[in-house]
Amino acid sequence: MSMRTLPLVFINLGGEMLYILDQRLRAHNTSEDNSDKGVWSENDRKRVMNDIVGTMFSKAFMDELLKPQQLYSHRTLKTVLTRLAHASIMRLNPASMDRLYELMVMAFKHQVLLCPRPKDLLLISYNHLDTVREFVKDTPAAVNQVDETHRRIIETYGLLSEGELQLLRQTLLIFFQDMHVRVSLFLKDKVQNPNGRFALPASGPVPHGIEVPGLIRMFNSKGREVKRCEFPTGGSYSSSIRQGSFELHGDRVVRLGRNMYVLCAAPPAQFNTSLLFMSLDDSPNLLAKEELNLLARLMGCMKVENVQRSGTGFRINLFSTDKEEEETDFNQSSFLFVFGSAQDVQASTELARIAGEFADLPENPSGSKGDDLLAMMDDL
Amino acid sequence: MYHKEKSIQIKNSASALYNNLSVLRIAPRSLTYFTVVHANVVNMVSASWDGLNYSHRQLQSKEPNVATSTSLIMQAAWCVLPSRDLLVLTSQKGIQMYESDGSIMVYWHALDTPETPTAQAVFARGIAAVREKYICVGVSSGAMLVFDIPTKGSNITLAEVLEEHKESITDMASECSGSLECIADLVSADDAGNLCVWKSGEEFQLLNKIPGFDMCCSSVKLWKGTVVAGYGTGQIRLYEAVTGILHAEVSAHARWIYSLDIAPFSGLLLSAAEDSLVRVWHLTQTPETNSVEIAHMYNECVTDTQICGAKFCDGDGYAFAVTGYDLSEIIRYTQT
Q1: Interchain proximity B234–A213, CB inside 8 Å
Q2: What is the rounded CA–CA span in Å between residue B64 and residue A157?
Q3: Which of A81, A278, A290, B187 is the most exposed place for a label (fewest CB within 10 A)?
Q4: Which portions of this protein are annotated as coiled-coil regions (chain A) (predicted)?
Q5: Which CATH superfamily hosts domain B2-335?
Q6: Closest partner residue to A163 among B39, B216, B243, by Cβ?
């Protein structure tokens, strides 16, 4: 379907990832015993943000994304996003990355589903860009990269018709299809129902350019309105409000895509051990090969953070899952069903190899921020 | 006016595509067939009228002779011709035609796909059976392919390519009233909302072009010479096909309309949109004044669901069926 989904996918998913990392790193900002161990300082956090943003918004990376191409699988995206996260000094364990990915995707799915008009997908993307710009505002080089990316997005997508943008949205919806992971923040705000499906409100302002339903107008052959009547609509809609800005800066008006974790003290997601069905494409070897090629090109664009193998990387567990993992029989509860064909085996081995490059680094026996963080998590 | 019946479960959930439900009523066998598209698969269910028997089949859009290549399907619809019914699938790769029960593929037409991907997506979308012997299919370039269908067998040929639209075709519909008096046989719609009205024949003739004001027309129907069009603005417009005169405009939905259907014997109209609502309307024609009126009859809200397909199950509109994005069921309603 649409050949232009990747740039928006990365900006929005990457944006959500940065929101969550930012919130989690702020949450680990204080230590209980007032020592420096296990604390992610303001500088650490900014450094992580700058490193990830610098990689994600690099010209080379964006060049690759902007080439017309199909949207690839969840597996490929997760691998690239893991690599992006690891462009910083931070190291995420696989369980954290899985959780992070689910959260990012469910947030983006919600935004795409509730997007008032297809064109507003761009406003949602710009909300992400605006917040990311804020994260790195003290680093002019990073801000420049975000601005440049923003300009390229405006240039590429600004001229697409509503029909083409709806095709893009439909392609994204196919990508998110059948994902109903429950997110505690969404459940609490009644944005998501207990069955994992999102609530669609039947009230509020209509999208810009749409009339409030309820009116039938009839015309004669000369084009003169001759009759007007109303019908009961079963909803309670009001007139649309002003349109958001599609420029580099401005009030986007649409709230979707803003940082919803900013007021959040608790971890953004306590995952119930809910079933997550993610079926991979029955894609043949051919498609897997293309995905691997894409991965190789994308990886090639990213500079590797020169972390010494002796283990000075800082491990972080994002979510209080360690204890859960210990207690629950991981084979039974919260699990990922992966349906793949036999032909996928080669692809998955290859991807596993690439992903394996980002496995946990050995812990520094002398104690690193990671250790104390782990200890802290265990206490929660 | 309607009440909910028992839903039919399908093997996969419906994808968010325009007109994502097709219904074929087979009276001699007391069966109704339904198809719903899920990514690269078409789910087909055959339901017996007594509600006791359901059988399922899945079709994939595959190039013949290529073992594993699949692609995303844009639409699946039955084409009812006097001599035979065919099930047509349109995808990113091309067009497939099957016998109506999905058992045998009788024809495959590959779309021209460029060597290196271009920014413009390539796919086929928009399916209509026209008069006795044609099936028309739309393409993302705006072209319309006219296929000549023999009364039986697989000797289907591409008769003509109509190049009037400049934007991707979204939907097509043929005159469904059964009246032979109507001059217009077919209406086609595109992403910019432009509508083309055609007369079929050895060479299809363009009768009229109704401009669209850059707002996508996602679903269109043609009944007794009246074009009924549903738009991304949630509006429904009624036009006189041959002249382009606007009869009526309805602010029908608060979101993008995804599906329209007409019950030809009663003049009932069904509209469904992303705003979770299905609405039933009644169209009346007054031949003396040459006008068409539309009156609202009924609303049905499918909570928390963006509807992507809605069709009447019979020519009177006694029953209708609905599909929604991410829903693995076909919801049915019958008149009380």
Answers
A1: yes
A2: 36
A3: A290
A4: none
A5: YVTN repeat-like/Quinoprotein amine dehydrogenase (2.130.10.10)
A6: B216
Residues A232, B299: C-beta atoms closer than 8 Å: yes
Q: What are phi and psi of A152, to 5 degrees?
A: -65, -35
Taking CB atoms and an 8 Å cutoff, what residues of chain A touch B325? 113, 173, 177
**Residues in CB range of B52: below 8 A, 6 or more apart:** none
Instruction: Judge contact between B5 and B332, C-beta under 8 A.
Output: yes
- Which of A231, A277, A294 to substitute to test the interface with B, most B CBs within 10 Å? A231
Across A60-68, average pLDDT: 90
Instruction: Select the residue of A3, A221, A283 nearest B290 (Cβ to Cβ).
Output: A221
Domain boundaries, chain B: 2-335
Looking at this predicted complex, what is its ipTM?
Answer: 0.94
Residues of A in contact with B170 (CB under 8 A): 163
B215: contact with A, CB 8 A cutoff: yes
Torsion of CA A82, A83, A88, A90, to 10 degrees: 40
Determine how many CB atoms are found less than 10 A away from the CB of residue B110: 10
**Three-state SS string across chain B, please?**
CEEECCCEECCCCECCCCCCCEEEEEHHHCEEEEEEEECCEEEEEEEECCCCCEEEEEEECECCCCCCCECCEEEEEEEECCCCEEEEEEECCEEEEEECCCCCEEEEEECCCCCCCCCCCCCEEEEEEECCCEEEEEECCCCEEEEECCCCCCCCEEEEEECCCCCCEEEEEEECCCCCCCCCCEEEEECCCCEEEEECCCCCEEEEEECCCCCCEEEEEEECCEEEEEECCCEEEEEECCCCCEEEEEECCCCCEEEEEEECCCCEEEEEECCCEEEEEEEEEECCCCEEEEEEEEEEECCCCCEEEEEECCCCCCEEEEEEECCCEEEEEEEC
Of A187-191, B63-67, B82-86, the one with minimum mean pLDDT is B63-67
pLDDT at A268 (0 to 100): 46
Interface of B with A in 139-168 (CB under 8 A): 167-168
> Residue ranges of the domains in chain A?
5-375
Task: Check CB contact of B1 with chain A, cutoff 8 Å.
Answer: no
- pLDDT tens digit string along A193-212? 999 999 999 888 999 989 99
* A68/B293 touch (CB, cutoff 8 Å), yes or no: no
**What pTM did the predictor assign?**
0.85
Comparing alpha-carbon positions, the chain B residue that sits nearest to A116 is: B255
Q: Return residues 271-310 of B near A (CB < 8 Å).
A: 275-277, 290-291, 293-296, 299, 301, 303-306
pLDDT, residue B113, reads: 80
